[in-house]
Amino acid sequence: MVTPRPLQAVLALLWSLLATPAWAQDVALRVETDQLAVGQRLPFAVVVSGAEPRGTPRVIAQDGLETSFVGQSQTMTLINGRMERYVKFQYEVWATDPGPRLLGPAYVQVDGAGPQRTITTNTVELLVRPPEQADASTARLSVQAEFSTAQAWQGQVVLFHQVLRSRESLAQARWLGTPTDGLMAPRDGTPETREYVLQDAQGQVLVNEQWVPLVATEAGSRRWPAPALEAHVVVDDGGPSRLLRFFSRTRREVVAAQPLALDVRPLPPPPTDFSGLVGTFRLSQRIDPRNAHVGDSIPWTIFLDGTGTLEGYALPEVQEVDGLRIYDKALRPRASTRKGEYKAGLTFERTLVPTREGRIQLPTLRVVVFDTDSGSYETLELVGAVIDVARGEGDELQLQSFGPDGSVDVAPPEEDDIRPLRGSGPGLRLPWLAWFPLALALAGAPGLAWLGGGALAAWAASRARRRQVEAARPLTPTEQLARLPDAAPARLDALDAVLRSALAHAVDQPPGQLDRQAALEALPPATAAALDALSQLLDRVRFAGAAAPPDLEARVRALVHELEGT
To answer: Which residues of the chain are in CATH 2.60.40.680 domains?
Structure first.
């Protein structure tokens, strides 16, 4: 049977959605924890997305580790109208010797847009502990609680690590007596939680780990009683029915960990410009000073990242820079606890607006922090970029009028192709006086047509020249106000350009050659102050995300009329 062409197109589209990878090919080796004991089995997976795997991936394991393939599963996800498929190959790893061991990489054969190829995954380092003691390995319920370090500096972020291991089925569990005295949870950065299952000779072990970030606020040798875990262990699950399992019987058990200790050292006497940041930090920036023109907006982004809390911190104010306006646009904090580490960051977004041409040097930014690795105060420096500013391409507002240009295409008159009267044969015979006017009109028609066409062409050319002269004449500020665009961003840009044009008009200078500072000094002080304030307000609205006041356009129009009258 022959499939109709429209149906073929639909089938081809569906096949492309289902068969074509939606994202870039990616493979990863994922492990829920990087620690296990000799004799324990830990599940891990090789996940493939955006590609079609061929066969089972080959996993490399260092001596002292053994792996086995468990099974394969896949998940289909629809993202933004496109299909994404994840293929998960599940494995188990177990250790025969203690010590650090490398798991991976894994080699995956995939089909993509090109020929079949091999993709290599990441490598994971596992810390293998010696075999657990008999009481620990056979315990039905055990807990562990400790800090990520035994010593910390005042103001440093430490992680409180809690571990639950259970061979029982738990209906509910919660920690009791977590340390709070002399410690404070940061506002940014939620705790990290991992849950996985280990397998050993006695069966399965459910492991739940949690890392809670805390700030050491008080110096001294701090001591806390042992935290405990309250668990409700399922005694009778109520049988196979899920409804009956809701009424399962439980027993309450409380298991205590070891007492906690943390030595918090006070900071040395700080310098006067100490920022208050404690940890290890890095300062960087992103700015593109190329192709800068007067009046342009240049994004300037500053990144501050580190292992300490950044709550409430703000960058030092930038000193006045000649020829440059600086606007704070946005502040974006971020923090997370991942893989047993606390990391925080701040992104400062600023907008630079050059007000003159030439070379402009941004000031060097310095932030003094206390580095917890070196135990001393350090200064982070961000060398100021150099911006070469050219004459503003937008110094003169360019507005277009979308109407006819007045030009008329006139075709030259065609030559007379009237055939002469036949000298013989039948014909229409009229008296001479009757046909003489008609003959005269026919003889003069080409000349009249030529004269009329020439006059029309001359009129059209004159009108076109007048339109060209009008188009070449710069628009007055009032005319520019009458032709403001409707779209909000373009309208704000046009209002700023009208102010520059009105300033140039007031001092009788071409807009493209305007010396703004000299022009402002030539105006009455009150008018110059109003113009400068209104220009800065427009810049804050255009570049810094400020809200435009309702009377903004009215204020621009009033000032433009005042400048035109000077």
So the answer is: 18-129
Q: Which residue has the tokens 């066969």?
A: 55
Pairwise CA distance, residues 475 & 467, whole Å: 13
Determine the Cα–Cα distance for residues 172 and 182; give it in Å rounded to an integer: 29
Q: Which tokens in the block code for residue 154?
A: 């005042």
- Cα 299 to chain centroid distance, Å, stands at 13
What percentage of the chain exceeds 70 in pLDDT? Answer: 76
Ramachandran quadrant class, 55 (left: phi over 0; alpha: psi -120 to 50; beta: rest): left
Q: How far is the C-alpha of 350 from the C-alpha of 287, rounded, in Å?
A: 10
Per CATH, the number for 134-265 is 2.60.40.740
The residues, any chain, with a CB within 8 Å of residue 264's CB and separated by 6 or more, are 151, 152, 153, 154, 182, 216, 218, 219, 220, 221, 222
**CATH topology (fold) of 274-390:** Immunoglobulin-like (2.60.40)
- Residue 311 DSSP class: T
Answer for the pair 103, 124: CB distance below 8 angstroms, yes or no.
Answer: yes
- 207 neighbors 41 (Cβ within 8 angstroms): no
Q: Give the count of beta carbons closer than 10 Å to the beta carbon of residue 55.
A: 8
Positions of CATH 2.60.40.740 in the chain: 134-265
Distance of CA 38 to the CA centre of its chain: 44
- The pLDDT value recorded for residue 270 is 94
Q: How many CB atoms lie within 10 A of CB 62?
A: 16
Counting other chains too, the contacts that 460-465 makes at CB distance below 8 Å and 24 or more residues apart are 460/406, 460/407, 460/408, 460/410, 463/406, 464/405, 464/406, 464/407, 464/408
Query: What integer pLDDT is reported at residue 52 of this predicted model?
Result: 85
CATH number for the domain running over 18-129:
2.60.40.680
The average pLDDT across 196-214 equals: 91
User: How does pLDDT run across 76-108, given as a tens digit for each residue?
Assistant: 877 666 777 899 999 999 998 999 999 999 999
Report in angstroms the alpha-carbon separations of 150 from 37, 223, 501: 23, 11, 68
What is the residue-wise DSSP string for 95-148?
A: ESS-EEEEEEEEEEEEE-SSS-EEEE---EEEEEEPPPPHHHHH-SEEEEEEES
Q: Which of the residue ranges 258-262, 472-476, 529-533 would you say has the lowest mean pLDDT?
A: 472-476
Averaged pLDDT score across all residues of the chain: 80
pTM: 0.66
Name the DSSP class of 346: E
